[in-house]
Amino acid sequence: MPLVSVVIPCYNRADRIAQAVHSVVDQDYPSFEIIVVDDGSTDNTEAVVAALEIPTLRYLRLQENRGANSARNVGIREAQGEYIAFQDSDDLWSASKLTTQIKQMLTHNAKVCFCAFNRNDRGVKTRVPKASYHVQHGCVDRHAELLRGSYISCQTLIARKETLLSVGLFDESLKRLQDWELCLRLAQDNPILYVEEVLVEADISDDSVSRQVEHYAGSAKNILDSHSAAFNDNREATAMLCINVAANALQHGHLGSFLYFVTRAVRQGGPALPGALRKLYLRR
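Above: the chain sequence. Below: its structure as tokens.
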């Protein structure tokens, strides 16, 4: 079986990094390495990782905090595996994750693959992707589907290293939505395989980047601009993203961002706006 490099970025996760690493160590897949990239932690993360004494684990420490995207990119470049998988310090894998996804990738000759996962947020568990997203099965062209919303999270993703390098890795300027933006680029030239089995339990901790709502609007604007050609050709997708960001901004009291994205939804969505609202309502 091909070597898989599992990249785990972390920052001040001394209390959680061991369980994340062990969920990789406990895989029934026979050929993997673990690369923990410490993004300038100020706690005792390094000591916790060293105490694990795992021969297949490499620990890389960045001297300053540069963000998870930068840490993942360092791990990808240092990886020796033909395939790259991503684990987060908050999350746990099923013991069969690598075996299930790699076998399916080899069967379908797929360069990119993701699986379903459970998102656990303060005791509320949600399966992603939701059934209401009607995600296509198998290994198919997903670009238009992905423009209408993100449902692939880093910890569910496996891709060939050469494929990741060819699209330019993670955008280090983004504070949110970085996995979605990467998948949009991957999907431009590669069919993406969906494994419907839930193989990841993702916990949203109180200090998780997913709670940093102030970065959501800025990242969404950057993605709309950097993928402008695709969004200009898909007004419904543009309106759906703008409405989602506007609703999030209003919920958290960011009036300026709310007005900006409502205006952009109307201006760029145009006649596709009613259809976008209907799809978002059905996806609740």
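The chain has a mean pLDDT of 94.
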